[in-house]
């Protein structure tokens, strides 16, 4: 049935993972499992407090709740498969399951790019135009902004996933990666992938270049506005409202640039090390970054810490 649907003789893929490094498999199984549990706990708590605490019913925390939910979805689309591959001798995945994972991971990544841009605009209005903030960032504005982030990310992912699964895969079904990563799957196609490459290039411009430029310009205005505040205490308070978002942006885009922008080594002696790094760097992007997001926002935000304390106190009191 899959053969008919996908017009391909390949009915499934073999995930190579870290098969060449069995000792590392055990170590990374424990590390990634622990980080995944932290992701579920940290982002789950952030979602709960932004829903239950009325003081956090603002645009900034609404976007933060969306970011936390997105991080849970993104990691859940790949981490269980990665953990299973560390324990299973033959690491196989069906064609349809691979397609679903490609769609989810690409959709969540694209959505986060847009969402971080929306959050930057929210901080720009809050700091540079505070008197107009309630009007500009009303519920009628920030809810459609978040919905459009999800809609754009999912739509683009549908396009890229569809273009990929329509390609013919003639026998070579070994994915040299930890999961069904779109670029790794494209390498297995036995036909010209120029359309896929061009569409990926266009997508990178719109989902990496444009949001980064928008965020950069927003923070230029924010920094200029903060520097004009006469008191040091006022400048500190203004900066604290956007420092968490800025930190998350630097980690998110910094990892992406390093992951896709680092030069390839031509030294055959270093090929194995580079192959290993090419697999582990996306783990940092896909697991470590979502784990750090709730930590950054909770440690640098008094409102979130107070809401978490109230949630814990209410839970203890009811028991």
Automatic annotation (TrEMBL):
Domain G-protein coupled receptors family 1 profile: 42-297
Domain of life: Eukaryota
Gene Ontology cellular component list: nucleoplasm; plasma membrane
Compartments where found: Cell membrane
First-listed, main subcellular location of the protein, grouped into a coarse class: membrane
TM segment ranges: 27-49, 61-83, 103-121, 141-159, 205-227, 239-260, 280-299
A GO molecular function held by the record: G protein-coupled receptor activity
InterPro entries (UniProt xref): GPCR_Rhodpsn, GPCR_Rhodpsn_7TM, Olfact_rcpt
Membrane topology annotation: Multi-pass membrane protein
Alphabetized UniProt keyword annotations: Cell membrane, G-protein coupled receptor, Membrane, Olfaction, Receptor, Sensory transduction, Transducer, Transmembrane, Transmembrane helix
Pfam families, per the entry: 7tm_4
Protein family: Belongs to the G-protein coupled receptor 1 family.
Main function: Odorant receptor.
Name used for this protein in its record: Olfactory receptor
Species assigned in the record: Mustela putorius furo
């Amino acid at each position: 049935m899959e053969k008919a649907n996908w017009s391909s003789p390949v009915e499934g893929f073999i995930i190579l993972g870290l098969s060449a490094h069995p000792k590392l498999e055990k170590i990374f199984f424990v590390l990634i499992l622990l980080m995944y549990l932290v992701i579920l706990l940290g982002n789950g708590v952030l979602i709960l407090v932004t829903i239950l605490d009325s003081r956090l019913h603002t645009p900034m925390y609404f976007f933060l709740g969306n970011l936390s939910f997105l991080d849970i979805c993104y990691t859940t689309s790949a981490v269980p498969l990665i953990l299973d591959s560390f324990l299973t001798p033959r690491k196989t995945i069906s064609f349809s399951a691979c397609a679903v994972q490609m769609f989810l991971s690409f959709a969540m990544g694209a959505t986060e790019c847009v969402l971080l841009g929306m959050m930057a605009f929210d901080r720009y209005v809050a700091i540079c135009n505070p008197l107009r903030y309630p009007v500009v960032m009303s519920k009628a504005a920030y809810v459609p902004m978040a919905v459009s982030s999800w809609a754009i990310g999912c739509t683009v992912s549908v396009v890229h996933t569809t273009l990929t699964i329509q390609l013919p895969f003639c026998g070579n079904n070994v994915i040299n990666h930890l999961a069904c990563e779109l670029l790794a799957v494209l390498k297995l196609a036995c036909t010209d992938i120029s359309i896929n490459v061009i569409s990926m290039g266009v997508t990178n411009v719109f989902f990496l270049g444009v949001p980064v430029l928008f965020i950069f310009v927003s923070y230029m205005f924010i920094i200029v506005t903060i520097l004009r505040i006469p008191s040091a205490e006022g400048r500190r308070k203004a900066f604290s409202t956007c420092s968490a978002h800025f930190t998350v942006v630097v980690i998110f885009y910094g990892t992406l640039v390093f992951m896709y922008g680092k030069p390839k080594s031509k030294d055959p002696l270093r090929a194995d090390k580079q192959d290993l790094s090419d697999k582990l760097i996306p783990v940092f992007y896909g697991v470590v970054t979502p784990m750090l997001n709730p930590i950054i926002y909770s440690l640098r935000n008094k409102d979130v810490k107070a809401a978490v304390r109230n949630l814990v106190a209410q839970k203890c009191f009811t028991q």
